[in-house]
Structure formats: C-alpha cells, structure tokens
Design brief:
Elements lengths: L3 E4 L9 H16 L3 E4 L13 H11 L23 H14 L2 E4 L3 H13 L14 H4 L1 H10 L4 E4 L6 E6 L3 E6 L7 E3 L7 H11 L4 E5 L6 H11 L5 E5 L2 E2 L15 H7 L3 H9 L14 H7 L10 E2 L2 H14 L2 H14 L7 H11 L8 H5 L12 H7 L2 H15 L6 H15 L3 H13 L7 H8 L1 H28 L1
Parallel strand pairs: 1-2, 8-9, 10-11
Antiparallel strand pairs: 3-4, 4-7, 5-6
The chain binds one RNA strand through helix 4, strand 6, helix 7, strand 11 and helix 12.
RNA sequence: GGCCCCUUCGUCUAAUGGUUAGGACACCGCUCUUUCAAGGCGGCGAUACGGGUUCGAGUCCCGUAGGGGUCACCA
C-alpha cells in the first residue's frame, strides 16, 4: 500500500515554525516513499477561525516548496479537504458510535460541568466526567433521553471509555506506550453546535482519506488513547503514528511568540531564504549523519527516515538559523540575489539601481551579513552618499598629514585608468610609498570619506563599485562640507 | 496534582554493548589582511544522579532528580 500522509493545521492564525516542521516531515516522508501528501484544514471550531489563515498556510507552504498533492484548491479523490464542509459525515459516524454503544448522549450545560469539576477538585480527585451522576443517557434513562431530544434540548455525544483495563499503542518515534483506561476522560465527540471535536473529525478523516501514517506534534500524545478507542469502536485499522518532539523556546517551554517571532511569514519578511529555513528546521529533531549541516530539499527527501527522529524537544536557536542563511547567501547565484535585493530596494524607496549594479553590491557585501536585506543597512553608503560619519573613527584615522595629502590623492585618483580595484590598489600603494606614509592610513582615510564607517568590504573593491566619478565627488564633498562639521562636533564634545 | 513523554558540550546533534565520546552553531585564540567579515588552523566544552546486568554501558534494566506536554462543547 502506498504511503499517504497529511498535514492538518487549524486556521487559527499564521503558519508557525512548529507547524512548518510538522508539514516538512510529512512532506519528506511522503516524497521519500513516493507517496501522497495531503493538506487538510481542521476548522471545526468556528469561534477560533482567523480570516486569511488558510491562505497564509497555503502561501507559506508554497514559498517553502512543500507543495501538496491533495487539498483545498487542488481537490483529490477524498475531498472535501476542509472539515467544516464535512460536518454531515461526522454526525453520521457519531450516530454509528451511538448505535454501537461506544458513545452516549449527555445534556449537561457548561455550568453544570464547571460545578462538577469544582466539586472534584475540592474532593482532591482528578477532574473527569462522571457518567454515573451527570445528566446523560445512563442516568436519565432511554425514555427521558428521547423526550429531551424531541424537545430540542442541546446535547453532546461523548465517547464511552472503559472503566478498567489498559490502552496500548505503538509509536514509530517513541515505541510502546500504555495508559490505564481509568485515566482517560469521556471525550466529547460531537459538540452541541453539531460540529465534531478534533478527536472525532481527525480519526474519521484519517480513515476516509486512507492516511497510512499520522505524523504530528507530541502535544497529541496524551489524546492517543481516545483515538485508539475510536478506531477500535469503528472496527478500523489504525494508521501508524509518529509523534514528533516539540520545538522549544530557549527556556525549554513549547515554542511560542513570547521569545521572538514564530510565524513563517515573519521569517520571510525578515529576508530569510526558504531553503535555509527548511534546512534548519529539518535538522531540529532529526539528523541523517551528524557530520553535515547543509542539505537541499532534494537531499533531505532522499535521506529522510522517520525512525531516526529524536524523542527530546529541540530549542529553536536563531543563531544557527542565521548561520545557515548566511551560508546560502554566500553560495546562491548573485544574479538571482540581485533581483531579490532590487525588491527590497524598491520596497524601501531607496532609489533606482540597475541589476548590474546590485549584483556588484551583492558580491561585495554578502560575506559580511547573514540576511540579504541587511546589505541595505550594512552597506547604506552604496545607495546614497554618507551623511553620518563615525566620530570615533574620524578621531582615530584623520590627521593633519592625511589632510595635506588630499589634493595629491585626488589628482592621482583622477588619472587612474581603468577604474578597477587591482589598478587602484597598485596606484595607492605606490602613492603611499612615494609619500612615505603607511598604506593603512590612506585606506582608512578613504574609508572614512567614502563610507563614513569603520567597517565594510575591501576599500578598493568598494571604490570600483562606487565608480570614479562618485568616489571623487565624495572626497571633495567630505573636505568641503563634512570635515568642518565634524571638527565642530569634536570641539563641542571636548568642551563638555 | 493525575497521566504520559523526555534527559550526550550553553545550543542542534553523531556514536551494530568495545571510539582518546565525533561534527556544527556560539564563544575564545592564531592565521590572512587596507577595516570588518568570510576562509584556514587551533582551543574551551557533554553522556543528570544512584544502583544493577555484562569481561566491557552514553547505549540494556530499576530507582531518583530535573525538564516538558496534557488534563475544555480548542485544535
């Protein structure tokens, strides 16, 4: 039988990193086995629905190249793939459970349930639905139940969990697990609004959609016994289960918004590459060798093995993500990067720059930043003349000697031809020697005048990218405008 | 608190019961050098604890401790 897996998010917000990892492992498993990857939207709680979240999930999966084979907008043989469009199916199966005696009807109001929990807590016992004292099919009797139903009194359908015995199941990641039945609650399967809860809808759909492997987060492990009971009540063969270790905050709690952003979209906006995000997230909880860090999606597909997935949760370390992203930044095609950079330039209204120019900028600076858009701030002087000059740097590298050399330096630069960094370098070296001054002094002065900053790419390379005209203009502008201003500032600081 | 899961450097991880416990990020140093990076080289740094099984345990078993998840008409 061919592999069929699903990613089943609920549309309660944006796709987050944890969801992406779950989707990724499902995707990798499906592709590795030549199986089918299904997207199913679990929107059975209409109160938690967030507008636009389905679109966001689909868009982000697509951005990461995790395209699904069946699902919303794509169709497939077992649709619809949105649970709110399948409510009649769940009602039908809930009735089947009722007929089989595996479930029962209950009329308790939320207030009554709350009082029950309070009583239990005061008595020091674990809160759990008590079907021998509450208002349900068993305590009310068949006749009264039918009467209330006929009257239209709201009701729910609950799973009738055995009072004794042990529920056992097997998990690909965690092995054999068993839970005493007495610790399992009589889960509500069908809510009073006629919608199913997760547990019913999930089991029914996984069966109807012929899912062979359920790969989901560890937070679902505690509800496994309920799901096992449901499969058994229906007489269905269970799929195989794999509960993935959680993604954690630096404090080891479940990954959440509190410690920085977790929405995939935020990483996209910040300028992370999808390849980097996928590469990083794939290695959180699974590793093919332990010796390599960089994998393409294709390589991940080839190597993926569910049995090698770890059991312990993994902290989401943004530092390593940045490093991986930086790696991709240094290895991607500069032409492609230039196109992407142009987008950022336009978004920020930095002016018009040709792709040729931006490509040079990318090559010049990509080894010095982790994210592509950081080039815009790190190398701001490549997009407009510097308006701010680091005072400390100025104080350190500017001197009377240097200032006296500026006219000669300008004359030298004017005659340099061709304007290429190797030529510029040779000429400047000769100049420094001739003037009996250290080359470093000249370079630092140029760096200050041309960029205003103490750090950046190689100076002559930067000059080449700026062009001769711009280089000369900036030097002149520095001497006539910025230098007096800087002097004045220094004087003010000194007098304070 | 009940139930369930988990535990190798700070972090992500590797290790058919036999390795000086390996790699990567971060950090530190050296190197390169016109600054800052990148690269290269090196360093720091872990089997939670206690028992047991075994010639031999990170690996198997038991206990303890710690961490996490979950206990809704939410998924």
């Amino acid at each position: 039988m061919s592999v069929r897996v699903r990613f089943a998010p609920s549309p309660t917000g944006y796709l987050h990193i944890g969801g992406l990892r779950t989707a990724l492992y499902n995707f990798l498993f499906a592709r590795h086995h030549g199986g089918t990857f299904v997207l199913r939207i679990e929107d059975t709680d209409k109160t938690r629905y967030v507008e636009g979240s389905v679109e966001n999930i689909i868009e982000m999966l697509h951005w990461c190249r995790l395209d699904y084979d069946e699902g919303p907008g794509k169709g497939g043989p077992y649709g619809p793939y949105v649970q709110s469009e399948r409510t009649e199916i769940y009602r039908q199966y809930a009735r089947e459970l009722l007929d089989k005696g595996a479930a029962y009807i209950a009329f308790d109001t939320p207030e009554e349930l709350e009082r029950m929990r309070q009583r239990q807590q005061q008595a020091g016992i674990v809160p759990k639905y008590d079907r021998t004292t509450m208002r349900n099919q068993f305590t009310l009797g068949e006749e009264e139940t039918q009467r209330l139903l006929a009257e239209g009194v709201p009701y729910v359908i609950r799973l009738k969990v055995p009072l004794t015995g042990v529920i056992k199941f097997s998990d690909i990641v965690r092995g054999e697990i068993s839970v005493p039945a007495r610790d399992v609650d009589d889960q509500i399967l069908l809510k009073s609004d006629g919608f199913p809860t997760y547990h019913l809808a999930n089991v029914v759909d996984d069966h109807l959609m012929h899912i062979t492997h359920v790969i989901r987060g560890e937070e679902w492990l505690p509800s496994m016994p309920k799901h096992v009971l449901l499969y058994e009540a229906f007489g269905w063969e269970k799929p195989q289960f794999a509960h993935l270790p959680l993604l954690l905050n630096p404090d080891r709690s479940k990954l959440s918004k509190r410690h920085g952003h977790v929405a995939v979209e935020d990483f996209k906006k910040e300028g992370y590459f999808p390849e980097a995000l996928i590469n990083f997230v794939a290695l959180l909880g699974w590793n093919p060798t332990g010796e390599r860090e960089i994998y393409s999606l294709q390589e991940l597909i080839e190597l993926f093995d569910l049995r090698k997935v770890n059991k312990a949760g993994a902290i989401f370390d943004i530092q390593k993500l940045r490093w991986i992203n930086a790696h991709y930044l240094r290895h991607k095609d500069p032409k492609e990067l230039a196109r992407q950079l142009q987008q950022y330039v336009q978004e920020r209204n930095l002016g018009d720059f040709s792709l040729e120019y931006l490509e040079k900028v990318v090559i010049l600076l990509r080894e010095r930043v982790d994210l592509l858009p950081e080039i815009l701030t790190f190398g701001d002087y490549l997009f407009h003349p510097p308006t701010h000059f680091e005072q400390e740097y100025f104080a350190r590298v500017w001197s009377e000697d240097i200032e006296a050399l500026i006219p000669a330096l300008l004359t030298l630069l004017r005659q340099i031809e061709p304007w290429e960094h190797t030529v510029i370098w040779e000429q400047l070296k000769g100049f420094a020697k001739q003037q009996g001054i250290k080359i470093g002094k000249v370079m630092n002065a140029l760096r200050l005048m041309l960029t205003g900053k103490s750090v950046g790419a190689g100076m002559t390379e930067t000059m080449e990218v700026l062009g001769k005209e711009e280089t000369l203009r900036r030097i002149e502008q520095f001497v006539t405008q910025h230098l007096p201003a800087l002097r004045q500032q220094m004087a003010e600081n000194a007098s304070e």
